[in-house]
Design goal:
By secondary structure, the protein is α+β, with helices and mostly antiparallel strands. The chain is 44% helix and 25% strand.
Length: 222
């Protein structure tokens, strides 16, 4: 599982590097460099592969197919980071079917044979160190609660180091006194997160703006 994740990250990194060789606009290169840094950091913090015999044993013990968990909620107390994962009927499973492996900066959740499926969630590069011995999981009605014991009783602003760096980069990108640059950054964000209709609308506005600029109607480059 970890090997497949690392292979996908490597492919993403190669594609970003290829785009960098073709990009000429500084803003686009800055975005690509940020993504390149995030991917390199995530690859660096991938957990080491399991010994082959252990990995094969775990693989052979799983029936059905595996679903990656992407939706979760989290909060924190002075001592714990708490991650809530909703899984219908999980409380009916034998306790050994819900496994969590902790390291100082990561954890892996594996839920085996829940309604014919296996469910996995991996968090690498946690924002701060956790206590492996003090961390645990609890099974509640339709919910798995992963409790990561903080090594230091301090507030976390997010869950992972990559998430923190991404937020800092985004804040820096939009923290500008140049209104036209702020508008460009906003349009890029809207384009990246928008649906097809939003992208068509932004493309149309960009083309019309270019046409007006070429005629000398407006000076702003958007």
């Amino acid at each position: 599982m970890a090997a497949a994740r690392e292979e996908q990250l490597q492919k993403d990194l190669e594609e970003v590097k290829e785009l960098l060789t073709k990009a000429t606009r500084k803003r686009l290169r800055d975005v690509l460099m940020t993504e390149k840094h995030k991917l390199e950091l995530e690859i660096k913090n991938q957990p080491p592969p399991k010994p082959k015999d252990a990995a094969e044993e775990e693989k052979s013990s799983l029936g059905g197919y595996t679903v990656k968990i992407n939706n979760y909620g989290w909060d924190q107390s002075d001592k714990f980071i708490k991650i809530y994962i909703s899984l219908n009927g999980v409380q009916k499973l034998p306790a050994e079917n819900v496994q969590v492996n902790f390291t100082e900066r990561s954890f892996d959740l594996l839920v085996k044979n829940l309604n014919g499926k296996n469910y996995t969630m991996t968090f690498n590069n946690l924002l701060k160190p956790i206590s492996v011995e003090g961390s645990s999981r609890k099974i509640k009605t339709d919910t798995v609660l992963v409790m990561c014991r903080k090594k230091r009783e301090e507030k976390w602003e997010c869950l992972t180091q990559v998430e923190k760096e991404s937020k800092e980069k985004e804040k820096a990108a939009y923290d500008t006194s140049d209104p036209s640059e702020g508008l460009m950054n906003l349009l890029k964000k809207m384009y990246a997160e928008g649906d097809d209709e939003m992208k068509r609308t932004i493309n149309k506005a960009w083309v019309e703006s270019r046409e007006k600029q070429s005629k000398g109607d407006i000076p702003m480059d958007i």
